[in-house]
Specification:
Bound molecules: flavin mononucleotide
Order of helices and strands: HHEHHEHEHHE
Mean pLDDT: 95
Strand order of the largest sheet: 1-2-4-3
Structural class: alpha+beta
CATH topology: NADH Oxidase
CATH superfamily: NADH Oxidase
Helix content: 40-55%
CATH architecture: 3-Layer(aba) Sandwich
Distance between the termini: 26 Å
CATH class: Alpha Beta
Radius of gyration: 17 Å
Number of helices: 7
Length: 186
């Protein structure tokens, strides 16, 4: 199997990270991979916000947990109420990709950039996990101030967010793939 296919098949969401920050060289490669994603009409409508500041990570974690604590889903609410729970699983780096709302398909373009970054991360033995709660938080009325503090450009909306860090522990096996998801017309 070639290396690219192997990386795609090996990638799993990581929920346990080393404390060590990812190196600047690795971070630059992740961002570069993100920037080389395809985009509608080559608009490249993304902005990458890299959060490594501990105070900002704590602030984001708290805000997401407060939002989830109000969830009608009792399991989610219980999880968010636990003081030890980190919404980013204590990842030392969180990357938020926001998309220019004036472009054709910012959500799709930014999701493609994030997947490029996930695959680049896997190839560098860096783990990553999409974190949806930030997405909802920063789109909400209450998230406006945080969006400013994160310096997300005007007219950009958060489209994707994930934690990144060197993996700690074992990577769980992939779930079974669903059957019947392919139609080939010849
Ligand atoms: C749009 C999207 C939102 C997700 N949100 C979360 C999340 O908030 N927290 C989390 O732990 N994982 C989240 N995930 C990761 C999925 O749970 C994971 O991709 C899925 O279970 C398949 O596992 P794998 O990534 O290891 O193959 C999200 C994934 C996607 C694509």
């Amino acid at each position: 199997m070639n290396e690219t296919i192997n990386t795609i098949l090996k990638r799993r969401s990581t929920r346990s990270y080393k404390r060590q920050q990812i190196s600047e060289g690795d971070l630059n490669q992740l961002i570069e991979a993100g920037k080389y994603a395809p985009s509608a009409a080559n608009e490249q409508p993304w902005h990458f916000t890299v959060v490594q500041n501990k105070d900002m990570l704590n602030k984001l974690n708290r805000a997401c947990k407060d939002a989830i604590a109000k969830s009608p889903n009792p399991q989610m609410a219980k999880m968010a109420a636990s003081p030890d729970f980190s919404i980013f699983y204590n990842a030392p780096t969180v990357i938020i990709i926001s998309g220019d709302t004036k472009t054709i398909a910012p959500q799709i373009d930014c999701a493609l950039a994030m997947e490029n970054m996930f695959l680049a991360a896997e190839s560098l033995n860096i783990g990553a996990c999409w974190i949806h709660a930030i997405f909802n938080l920063l789109l909400s009325e209450g998230g406006k101030q945080l969006k400013d503090e994160l310096q997300i450009p005007k007219d950009f909306n958060v489209c994707a967010a994930a934690g990144f860090g060197y993996k700690a522990g074992e990577t769980p096996a992939a779930a079974e793939r669903k059957q019947g998801t392919v139609t080939i017309l010849k």
